[in-house]
Amino acid sequence: xxxxxxxxxxxxxxxxxxxxxxxxxxxxxxxxxxxxxxxxxxxxxxxxxxxxxxxxxxxxxxxxxxxxxxxxxxxxxxxxxxxxxxxxxxxxxxxxxxxxxxxxxxxxxxxxxxxxxxxxxxxxxxxxxxxxxxxxxxxxxxxxxxxxxxxxxxxxxxxxxxxxxxxxxxxxxxxxxxxxxxxxxxxxxxxxxxxxxxxxxxxxxxxxxxxxxxxxxxxxxxxxxxxxxxxxxxxxxxxxxxxxxxxxxxxxxxxxxxxxxxxxxxxxxxxxxxxxxxxxxxxxxxxxxxxxxxxxxxxxxxxxxxxxxxxxxxxxxxxxxxxxxxxxxxxxxxxxxxxxxxxxxxxxxxxxxxxxxxxxxxxxxxxxxxxxxxxxxxxxxxxxxxxxxxxxxxxxxxxxxxxxxxxxxxxxxxxxxxxxxxxxxxxxxxxxxxxxxxxxxxxxxxxxxxxxxxxxxxxxxxxxxxxxxxxxxxxxxxxxxxxxxxxxxxxxxxxxxxxxxxxxxxxxxxxxxxxxxxxxxxxxxxxxxxxxxxxxxxxxxxxxxxxxxxxxxxxxxxxxxxxxxxxxxxxxxxxxxxxxxxxxxxxxxxxxxxxxxxxxxxxxxxxxxxxxxxxxxxxxxxxxx
Length: 625
Description:
The chain is of the alpha/beta class. The protein has a domain at 430-614: Toll/interleukin-1 receptor homology (TIR) domain (Rossmann fold, 3-Layer(aba) Sandwich). 27% of the residues lie in helices and 20% in strands. The strands form seven sheets. An eleven-stranded mixed beta sheet has the order 1-2-3-5-7-8-10-13-16-17-18. Strands 22-21-23-26-27 form a five-stranded parallel beta sheet, with helices on both faces. It has a three-stranded parallel beta sheet with strand order 9-12-15, with no helix packed on it. A hairpin with a 2-residue loop joins strand 1 and strand 2. Helix 4 (315-323) packs antiparallel against helix 5 (366-375), helix 5 packs across helix 6 (389-426) and helix 10 packs parallel to helix 11. The radius of gyration is 35 Å and the shape is elongated.
């Protein structure tokens, strides 16, 4: 009997063991009784997704121990949504007046799905927090799972729990923060760092304290392609906010109170779309304009609906904007599932908000440029003289007429110049390349130099002919060429041109007062009408003045009549077929300097040697090339 009793107890133990263990291996997260969550299938337009709703309330704290036995999740795609329902029918209220100021608190412990840690293949997870107060997420909370996307909807929190999600830095692709109304507690400015797979970040209706983007807001995110921040509070962006984001192509900070253009955009080498619509930008500094020019891949720029102050300080930006070939009104590119927040009814306008007599005047009106140029002082730091609206309208009409006449003259001048060049080629006129090394000169040449310099009274050694995109290079050139030991004098449009004078008058004066002309030739230059006009004027003067080269012993000096010379510097590698007709006609008569960024010291030395040669004149000609 004792033996029988022992066998009975053993059988009971085995039976109890089976009762306890077997259900645990079969529990699905959709089992509401066990997990406390409900599963709902959402479908439409050929797409379906299962959403697991885990309901929060103030009356009960969500019991995460219910997940300890969960071993099954819905087939992909599926989403895990921690959400608070708060009306009498367990539905979200869409009425702002009934939107509660309280939210159910939630603290997510570590390893909430222990039975899924060893699942093969790993479980992919999309995570939502909706209308809850997120206290914290412990590290390794979703251990064993592949977190691909996380979204915070009307979620109260003090900061984004990015440190707790670093475990998923190689899988997390999308982060979204969205609030229906801006009545939540401000959060600390987010910093997204070291997430190697992160592609898209979207933030809407979110207040920050302090209201700025700090250093390394975006840092070491090699996969990031889009960062959108709309209707939030960002007054300022640090100069080092965006670093090591090589594939970021879309950057938007719109309707957020931004007061300055972020200098850090110049660090984003592949940025194609920049949207700063509807902020509080009143003016654009030189550094900010340089940062826009430094974004070499930029294709669209939307800065509409900002309260621009159309004073002399804004004139360089307006001129750049008018000449730019950027798309100035492109809408946000749709990404992920956030595109529905885009306000497609918004009207984009670039207009003056101040001073009063220019209010609502378009920044893209050519008449505004002429008006500001004619009323700004050399310093360009004050508002223009307060003329009436009729004065501006008259000025605008005159400017348009001037532009039309100037364009016609340019076309005619180019045609005549081409004919002249072809005729000179037939007469076999010999031209001289100037990029030669002049190391020693004999006594005769030195004497000729002294005699000729007494007769020639030039204000400048060279006039710099360049596109606006090369302003930064020219700014670097000035101290190198004009400083010790060279002491040359350059004529630069943005420094030496007379403000208010006609552009052609300024160029003509510069050519007459300069010994030589340095052409900085790049891709922007050959597509710009003003640059081509200056090139043709320079070539025309060269044709009428350049002679041969006189040699004496080991020395070499330029012969009389060659006061103005053309020094061509190739900044970009350009095929012959894209060169202007004038340069193609003269390409075998002019020696060019191909600028090499890896050997700049040699290039600077060769350029200064050529300028030094322009000061040397001969006594007599012995040989003509």
